[in-house]
Design a protein that fits this description.
By secondary structure, this protein is an alpha+beta fold. 35% of the residues lie in helices and 22% in strands.
């Protein structure tokens, strides 16, 4: 347990934010609300930083390989002073034999420290990904489904041991 009395208020809040699962419930919005969606974007940012390191310095392609899991590939598509567009996907088998999935297009908002899923492949062959895709409806619901998928996937990748900082450049 963290003793908050030994830290400044800013240090205490920063420490709690590093592990968003420990944030007090009163800081969270109602599920599927705009406030909750923004909290989800924040959580996506925290997880992506754990996975890929400094998001402002990402360039080119990176691939993470771990035992008993598919390769995870991150590609920088576009950079600007305040945002970076990324593609994050699994690579199943040889690149030309099987499609990659879920082919998520991410937007990193550097100043706000948020990560939003802007899109994903329009068709999924895997039944779980198809179900997540079908969960989308109105714009807020669709954003919620895409970003919840990313959040769970990032956590899964971290648990499997994937890391994209210091990862080899993708071929």
């Amino acid at each position: 347990m963290i003793d908050l009395r030994e830290r400044s208020p800013w240090e205490a809040l920063s420490g709690l934010a590093a592990d968003d699962g420990r944030l007090p419930a009163s800081w969270r919005g109602r599920p599927r609300s705009f406030a909750a969606l923004m909290a989800l974007y924040d959580s996506n940012h925290l997880r992506l930083v754990r996975l890929a390191g400094d998001l402002r310095s990402l360039a080119g392609q990176r691939r993470s390989r771990v035992v008993d899991d598919c390769d995870l590939e991150l590609r920088v598509l576009e950079r600007s002073p305040y945002t970076t567009q990324l593609e994050l996907t699994y690579v199943f088998g040889a690149e030309h034999d099987m499609p990659s999935a879920p082919d998520m297009l991410l937007c990193v908002y550097h100043d706000a420290r948020l990560v939003e899923v802007r899109g994903w492949t329009p068709r999924h062959d895997h039944p779980v990904l198809r179900d997540w895709r079908a969960a989308g409806g109105p714009a807020l619901d669709e954003r919620w489904a895409r970003n919840m998928m990313l959040n769970k996937w990032l956590e899964y990748c971290l648990e499997r041991g994937h890391r994209l900082f210091g990862a080899h450049a993708a071929p």
